[in-house]
Amino acid sequence: MRSEHAVVAKLAEGLRAASGAAALDRIAGELESHFAYEEEQLVPVLNSLIDVPWSRLEH
To answer: What Pfam families does the record point to (predicted)?
Structure first.
């Protein structure tokens, strides 16, 4: 995850320097890919947790 967050930090730097729709589209695509990866990695772990405060919340 740390390496992924380093990638996101570089993308944020690129976003500040980006000019033009193509550059923004590229950065947006890379961020979407990063967030999909994070979700793929974290959701199973979070779903496996049993005794956490949010599992006891009533809806």
So the answer is: Hemerythrin
